[in-house]
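Usage

Read records sequentially. Each one opens with the input sequence:
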Amino acid sequence: MTDYQSATRNGPPNARPVAMVTGASRGLGFLLAREFADRGYDLVVCARDGLDPARADLARHGTQVLALEADVSEPADAARLVAETERRFGRLDVLATNAGVIQVGPAAEMRIADHEHAMDVMFWGVVHTVHAALPLLRRHHGRLLAVTSIGGKLPAPHLLPYSAAKHAAVGYAEGLRVEAARLGIGVTVAVPGLMRTGSTRNALFAGDDPAAERRWFTLAASTPVLSMDAERAARRLVTATLRGRAEMILTPAAKLGVRVHALAPGLTMRTAAAVERLLPGPLTLNGGGARPEPGHSTGRQPGWFARLTRLDRDAAHRWHELDDPA
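and closes with the structure output:
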């Protein structure tokens, strides 16, 4: 059993391990933080806003929680996160880079600003935070959990800014693992498939019919075999990190997709293209569409949709997706 796995709640000051989780105000980030707390870690949690409900919830698990509002796409904010962590705890044992944004809609409707925003949060947000944290992680032979996505391994229709940013994050995390071992730092590349986090309420939807975009995306995220319970996902990701796994792909569909794409990329791209033709089409053809709007702003959905997506709605209530609707 490693020192990570044998952490206790009753050790002397600065003896308890510390985990930092970005994007921890809700959804998977909150659940990762809770899982570390249940394993005896003190926590540093950050998000751009909406942290109070998550902080109060996490504190009930008997752990010290340092909650900091920060935008990890800004190098100064990432550096401040690490500096505050060292000032408060004197150590950092695990960094989980989870902050993200999901933009759903036809590629022709996506603006350059949407691509820039996705890259800022899900690529540069990882780079800035890791760069700032490396010296502190090295001091305690720490570990990095880089939360990417199946969208970073496979082409996904109507998710182009998200997929491109996640592809970049996968490349960065895999390359970092190659070099981090010499520094005594372990890197685990997390590749989740669809999860039932309730995040579709705060995902951003674009195109001619944002409500229709929300419907197909939420239906997929609510389907039990296609998607995964978020609590179970968090447990498996934390376990993989503490055991030093190189990569963790979650959901059978994601594992199958990665294997098929490696062997027959043309087949997977043709399949994705066929699926794309079933989705709502673009209103414009020059990337000059309207700014994407959050799912909770796309209007009332039909009753059949509410019945079929109960799992997603329940997850939104449980994992603080309703606390931060911005």
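Summary fields computed downstream for this record:
- Confidence is low (pLDDT under 50) at residues 1-12.
- The chain is about 45% helix and 15% strand.
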